[in-house]
Structure formats: C-alpha cells, structure tokens
Amino acid sequence: MHVVYDSLQQTIAFRSEIHTPVCLEGVCKPLDVLLYWDLSGAYLGYTTLEGVPLTKFDHDPFTAKDYLQLHTLLCNRYSALDRKTLEELVTSEAPSGERIVFNGMEVEAISGATVKEIQEEVVHGALYSCYSLWHLVYGQAVTSIKEHVAKNATERFVVQLLDAEWSHYWEYAVRLMDDTLIQRHPVRLAAVFQKCSPLVRKRILQKASSDHAELSDLERRLIGLFEEVDVNTRTLLIRRAIKSGAPGLLALKEGMNAMTKNQLEMYLKAAEALEPNSRQPIVTHGIKLRANSESNHTYVLQQFLNKYE
Question: What is the mean pLDDT of the chain?
C-alpha cells in the first residue's frame, strides 16, 4: 500500500499495485492493475498498467464499456459478490467448458455459466477478474488504510478532512478528533454542523458536550444554528441548553418559533425554573412573538406567559 500526495505534500489517496494471475486450464494470464482508495478507505478507481490491458477468458481484451462496467461494479459496496463464494456464482446446469482454479477450487469459467443474479453486474467473460478485484477493493486493504490513518493522523490531516467537500470525510474527521481538537476548531465544526447529516451532527454534539454546565464556544455556535438543522438535532440542542441553565436557554430564545409543540413545552418548562432576572428575556421575547402572531403554538406560549405577565 502506497500513500499518494499532492503538490503540497498532503495525503490525497492510497494506492496498491495488484499483480495476480488468472489461470485458465494451466495457462495463466496476469491481472495487473493499480487500485485507489480515498482517505477513508472508500474505493476511488483503478487504472491498468501501460501495455497490459485486462482480458476475458476468451482472450479478448476489455472494451471501453467493459472497463466502465468493472468500475461500476467496484463502486458498489453492497454487490452480491460480497455474499457469494466463487463456486456459488456459477450454475451446475451450465454446459461444461473451460475451468479456472481459485483457492485450489475448480469452477466453470465460461461466461454463460454465471448465475443470473450477478450476470448484469460483472463483465461478460471476466467473472474471476471481477470477483478477485471486488474482494481486493473491500478486503484487508480497507482495514490497513484505517489502521494507518488512526495511527498517523495529524491535526493538519483532520483539518483537511473537515475542509473537504465530501460528507463522508466530515464524519471520518469527527471520529478521529479528540476533546482537544474538537475545542480547537469551533468555526470549522460549526460549518460542518450546518450542512452535514443528522448522524454526524449527533456525533459532533456528543464530542462537544462535557460534564460541565458551562457552554463552550463550539456549543454556542451550534446552538446558534438551531433554526438551520433538522428537528431531531434541535431536540438535542434544547437538552444541552437546559443542562447549561440560563446561558443556554437564553441563547436559544430566538429559536422558539422553530420549535415543535413538545420542544417548546420542554424549553418553557426549563425556563420556569430560572431566576426571575434570567427568565425575563425569554418572557419578553415570548410577548413579542405573540404580539406579532409569529408563534406556531400560541396556546403553549400563552400558558407560559400567563404566569409572568
């Protein structure tokens, strides 16, 4: 496995040079390709070596369509090839023909013997090559990449992942970050929080939160994005705000109109427990929402205001 760098000496991919024989009735032909993975271990692509094209069992070289079909197959992490042995991918009813040896086991090599379930996935006449490459792409290489990254990841590398355009890099970066890194990059994490999936938002919140009631700079930034995130993340933000007491509840008051009925009830119940001086800005904002008819749950808000007007 080799690391691929850009002109700035940043890691941009991983590459492995594959040399394995495809043996057909005692005659072996080479399967020589370069496989590429991204920084998270996800398949990127492949290239052939100059002057060494991929071939089928009838010795015909791959066509442009075949190369594209192979790439499409290798992009599919959930291919049926994952659930099948090579022996299961050929039918016993097929007429006898050329045979190949894989891990000491002879199986039918002719393309017509391929089971219907995967006929459209694999390149016609190149079942063994497709099967071998798919398992190389999703096998030990991925484990090796993740072990390498976990052992060697630097702050610069994590920042590179956070600044990337690809969402799976953001999740990977959050997984790699310890408490120190989390608190050192509030601006970047808030930017990711705004556009990432609910699952990644949950992980950011989990890592950002501490046992202390006091809100960190990062948590304040996340609460500030309340109206821009999904409803489940909003519930998590409300719970964190409640844990922090007055600072968190006050930081959330601008988001009252975006809350669901249950969220608003939870928020206002916590506000009731505040000292009068701390609670007053929330009351004042509630009166403003009611006056402007902006509240989505006026009766819930009115019940709260009745206690303090």
Answer: 85
- Structural tokens at position 292: 């402007």
pTM as predicted: 0.78
Of 188, 264, 203, 206, the closest CA to residue 231 belongs to 264
Name the DSSP class of 216: P
- What does the domain layout of the chain look like in residue ranges? 2-141, 153-305
Spatial distance between the Cα atoms of 57 and 120, rounded to a whole number of angstroms: 17
Looking at the chain, the number of H-run helices and the number of E-run strands are: 15, 6
> How do residues 244-300 score in pLDDT, each as one tens digit?
899 999 999 989 889 999 999 999 999 999 898 888 998 988 888 877 776 678 888
Beta bridge partners of 108: 99
How many angstroms separate the CA atoms of 188 and 159, rounded?
8
- Candidates 270, 300, 266; CA nearest to 286 is 300
Query: Cα separations (Å) of 114 from 12, 63, 119, 190?
Result: 37, 20, 6, 50
